[in-house]
Structures are given as C-alpha cells and as structure tokens.
Amino acid sequence: MAENLNTDESARGDAAGDRVLYGCMGLGGSWEPGHPYGPDDIDVAEAAVEAALDSGITTFDHADIYRHGKAEAVFGEVLARAPGLRERITLQTKCGIRLGGEDGPGRYDLRGPSIVRRVEESLTRLRTDVIDVLLLHRPDPLADPDETAGALMSLHRQGLVRAFGVSNMGAPQITALQARLDVPLVANQLEMSLHSRDWVEAGVLLNTPAYASNGFPFGTLEHCRDHGIRLQAWGALAQGRFTGRQSTAAEHATAQLLTDLARKKDTTAETILLWWLARHPAGIAPVVGSARPDRIRACRDAAVREPDLTHEEWYHLWITARAAPLP
Predict the structure, then answer these.
(1) Is 66 a catalytic residue?
(2) H or E element that contains 229
(3) What's the pLDDT tens digit per position in 301-315?
C-alpha cells in the first residue's frame, strides 16, 4: 500500500480542486469524542486514500469537526506512512462550527482568534505545514467580517494557508467577505445532488407558488460562475438513495434509469449520478464521501472523463427524480 501511495501518478490539483474531491468525514472511527481511533481506523483511511488516488482523485476534503478531529488525525497518520504523498495532493479543510460540550453549546464561531486556533490544530492533526484551501464551514451571525478577513489574511501571510473559500454561503455573504480580502475566494461548497435539487430548481421555480418553499439562495450559482469560484457539491451521491438505498417510487425509477444509462455508456450508476452534477455549466465538483474503496472506485470515470450525458438525458434524470413535470 505505501509503495502505491508513493508513486508519481497523481499530481497536485489546483486551488479549487479536481473534477471530483474525496470527502474525509467517514474516516477516523467513532463520532464519540472520548473514543480514540486505532490501527484499524488508520488502515481504513489508508485504503480509502489509495482508492481515491487510483481513481484520479487528489483533492482531499476535511473539516476540523469530522469525528471530533479524528478524521484529520488518521489522515495525518496516512501521510506519515507515505513519505512524499503530501506534495502530490491538495488538502482542504474547514473551520467555523463548534459541536458543543463542556465549553458551551453547539454554535458557529468565525471570530479571528478562533479561526487561527482551529487552523493551528488542523495543521497539527494533519501533520503538515500548510493547508492548501481553508473553507469557512458556515456563516456566523455574530462574526465581525473585518475580524474574520483579518485572521484569514494573517494566516495567508504566514504561509499557513494558500487559498480560501466558503461553505454553505450565498452570493451576498461571499461578496461581503471578498470585499475584505486581498486574495480571491476559490470555492463554495454546498449540498447539491440529484436528491437535494433546490440549487437547480431555484432557477426554474421563480414566479411559481413552489418557489416559496425553495431554500437555495437564488443567484449564488451565477455569482460563483461569474467570479471564478468553484462550486463543490457535498452529499453528491445522495446517501445512496439511487444506488442501493431506494425507498420511494421516484428513487426506484431513478435508480433504474441510472442503471440503464450506466450500461449504455459502459460506466457505473455512481458515475452517472456525479456526471449529472458536473454536466451543469457552473462547473460543479462533486465530493465523494464514502469510506468504502469499491464505492470510491465506482466514481473513477467521473474523476477522469468529461460528463457523457446529452441534454435530453440530463433532463430525463431530473424529471424522474423530482417525480413531476417541470413548471
């Protein structure tokens, strides 16, 4: 395994990431904060990293809260096992969510000192000197935007973070932060999938009664596209709703359509699901979060091939999943 990780086949992705990212939330063992990870958890993480690299994925997405820091820590163990790997991958992590405990309730925290402290802790757990991309995980209503931006620029000047982005933010929030930064924001990570469709339906439900129940910040896709901010889709595989965990008639029908298209195009249903996101002109990069090597490898074609879906096939998937005609 270590020899495979040490090959030179993978190249560092750019600041905004690869076509497909690997999401590391499933690594690190238990979510229980007092339950330490062990050798088996490191082996699981190593196998997942190997599967991602074999699939052409070199951008790894973390957050300081994943498994209460254990996801970053086991990834750091994998890096320690494979000298030279760090130089060939892109490390992305997030900060800004506090899960709560003895120090207070669950909350968001984008105060300057908190950002700096969280980054220092992530660097230690990941066993690296620099984070390639730092995302602000969720908006903090109490944060002073000047203080937040000041902390980010300080981390950048110190060489601790190369680039910045956001997660779960809309266009006005991105605009306000960007106005205070001396470097461009490179990414916005949002929940987007064939199941969580508010991001695409916001644009067509406008001027219909159904628009009132759509929670996606209208104009955010267009803003990110116009300003070179890469959209990243968390939850891209829809928690398996169309690839093994179907429970509704629409999910069963969509799963069958995915299977038919995968057979037609000599690929997997998972790849078709990710191609549906990537086919959108906003240039969406799906985040694959499974810890199972076989499921990661099932996404390989999405990482290495251009989306092979026609206009009509893309709409067929959308209409089948929504189980209703477009307005």
Answers:
(1) yes
(2) none
(3) 999 999 999 999 999
